[in-house]
Specification:
The protein has 134 residues and is an alpha+beta fold. It has 6 helices and 9 strands. The strands form 2 sheets. The protein has a 5-stranded antiparallel β-sheet with strand order 1-2-9-4-7. Strands 3-8-5-6 form a 4-stranded antiparallel β-sheet, with no helix packed on it. The longest helix is centred in the C-terminal third of the chain and has 17 residues. The protein is globular.
Length: 134
């Protein structure tokens, strides 16, 4: 379930922990935080499914998610591959426990990253590493 939020300070601190977003200037991270949508998922629920179009980037606020047998917790981001490469989702992501996430719409995420060389380079490196590990 998704809800628009105005909890920018909380989201800003968490978004700063995501390596590809940490390279962004503070005003850009603050804008993303204002645009972030709160999303909650019960344990076992799919968040994204392999083959679906990518429309959002997610950051784990609390709980854990499972991607290809690996679990990720607070401060972990996912969903960048489909957005950066304009391809369908490359993996199914499930909530491994009850999970609360921030989600960023495709256009906001891409505008922020593609407007900053360091952030774009970091995001591309993450996507390349994940695809190499798949």
């Amino acid at each position: 379930m998704l809800d628009r939020t105005t909890a920018a300070p909380e989201a800003t601190a968490l978004l700063r922990r995501v390596p590809m977003l940490a390279a962004l200037p503070e005003p850009v991270v603050e804008r993303l935080a204002r645009e972030a949508v709160d999303a909650s998922f019960r344990a076992g629920t799919p968040i994204v499914r392999e083959g679906e179009p990518g429309d959002r980037f997610y950051v784990v606020k609390s709980g854990t998610v499972e991607i290809l047998g690996r679990t990720f917790g607070s401060g972990s981001g996912f969903g960048e591959i489909a957005l950066l490469r304009d391809v369908p989702r490359t993996a199914t992501v499930r909530a491994a426990s009850d999970a609360s996430l921030w989600s960023l719409e495709r256009d906001s995420f891409l505008r922020a990253l593609l407007g900053n060389v360091r952030a774009q380079t970091a995001a591309t490196a993450v996507a390349d590493a994940r695809l190499g590990a798949a």
